[in-house]
Amino acid sequence: MSKYKKLSHVVYKCDYHIVWVPKYRFRILQGEVKQFVEEDIRMLCEWKKCEIQEMNVQSDHIHLVVSVPPKVSISELMGTLKGKLAIKLFRSYPKMKQKPYWGNHFWARGYFVSTIGIDEELIKRYVKYQEDEEKRAESQQHKFDF
Q: Which domains does the chain have, with CATH numbers?
């Protein structure tokens, strides 16, 4: 797997660590439900052209490390994942709509997201000293101009 991905007009590396939980952090993501959620997350990410690098479905939360193309916002991806998963779960497991569970809401509001990228200090140094590097390369090139 290449470090960078390409679309028609962009080269990118947009990797994210995302965590979200069922409402009330119920420990419902087990057994058949866990397998159902894992399969659907894979299918929905593929549909959005996102590449799953790691996924861990725990009984009360989900960790996802995913590469997302720049044309897909994280809020759009999470809206799709949480919305479509909830609809399919309630259709497949109608008892979940009853108390003590959720009514029409499966997931807690919100989620955690963090970018995963190249070392921040490395980027800062690159940006800070890029002009000096370009000048040095330019002066080297002029030495060989006749």
A: 9-118 (3.30.70.1290)
